[in-house]
Amino acid sequence: MSMKRFFTSAVAMAAVVAAVPVARPLEKREPVTTITLTSASTYTATIAPATPVTPTGTATYPGTTAPVPDSPKPPKNGKPDGSCSSTGTCGSGSGGSSSGSKLPGVAYAPYRGDHQCKSKDEIQHDITQLAADFSVLRIYGTDCDQVANVYSCAKGSGLKLFLGIWNIDDVQTEAKTIISAIDDWDVVDTISVGNELVNNGAASPAKVIAAVKQAREILRAAGYQGPVVTVDTFIAANANPELCN
Q1: Are 242 and 236 in contact (CB under 8 A)?
Q2: Could you tell me how far CA 129 lies from the centroid of its own chain?
Q3: Spatial distance between the Cα atoms of 159 and 126, rounded to a whole number of angstroms
Q4: d(Cα 210, Cα 178) in Å, to the nearest integer?
């Protein structure tokens, strides 16, 4: 065999050898295990072995330990957070911030799903729950005897009320309804006149401002000294800054 033919054969053999995959033992993988902790027991379930992957380099696996959650703490005095006593005193609810403080406020409408008025007992049930998490409760009008019902249910709960005059064409009647229902103005945080009327195109800024002034005069004469305002969107207020005066 000539040297040239020997060299060609050697190169071909080397190519064949290089093309044959070299078997590599796979690492033994342990089954993946999940642990679910409850206050009563620990349950361990084997899911499936992890799919082995051929390593492409040197890998390191730092040891980590998953934190074990604390067992749930029983509520004090047998009552869950947010419960209210029969005297109307409410504790911090679950919906509050982590510091235990209440959220600023919530809007409330005393109507059922069929648009009928809620009873006083139903309103009391709602307010008992809301008082645990919120500082101010807003209502929008005076129908359904809502001012008297909400006020009587909120007294002693720690809630402040954001009352409302809905119909600016009948300010005097709605203002008098509020006055007749309230015997302690300290419970009232604010009284609004109209709701987003300028933004909705339902009233001009001038008409809303006139209604606010009328309501303020009536309420001041009855002893209420808190804010009397209108509520509208940022867009409407930005375009009509007189609404904020």
Answers
A1: no
A2: 15
A3: 12
A4: 19
Domains of the chain by residue range: 101-244
> In whole angstroms, what is the distance from residue 92 CA to residue 79 CA?
11
d(CA 93, CA 96): 6
pLDDT tens digits, 62-113: 444 444 444 434 433 333 333 333 333 333 333 333 335 899 999 999 999 9
Closest among 153, 161, 102 to 136, alpha carbons compared: 161
Buried b (16+ CB within 10 A) or exposed e, 212-243: bebbbebbeeeebebebbbbbeeebbeebeeb
Q: Give the distance from CA 28 to its chain's centroid.
A: 48
Q: Which of 31-40, 97-106, 208-217 has the lowest mean pLDDT?
A: 31-40
Map residue 117 onto helix, strand or coil: strand
The amino acid present at 61, given as its one-letter code, is Y
Beta-strand pair 31-37/103-107: unpaired
Token pair recorded at residue 232: 């509208």
Q: Are 110 and 144 in contact (CB under 8 A)?
A: yes
Distance (Å, whole) CA 118 – CA 112 = 6
Whether the model clears a pTM of 0.85, i.e. scores above it, the answer is: no
Q: Which residue has the tokens 């799903």?
A: 113
The pLDDT of 131-155, averaged and rounded, is 98
CATH for 101-244 is 3.20.20.80
Tell me the backbone φ, ψ of residue 231, rounded to 5 degrees: -115, 125
DSSP 203: S
Spatial separation of the C-alpha atoms in residues 3 and 21, rounded to whole Å? 30
- Closest CA relative to residue 132, chosen from 110, 115, 154: 154
222 DSSP 8-state letter? T
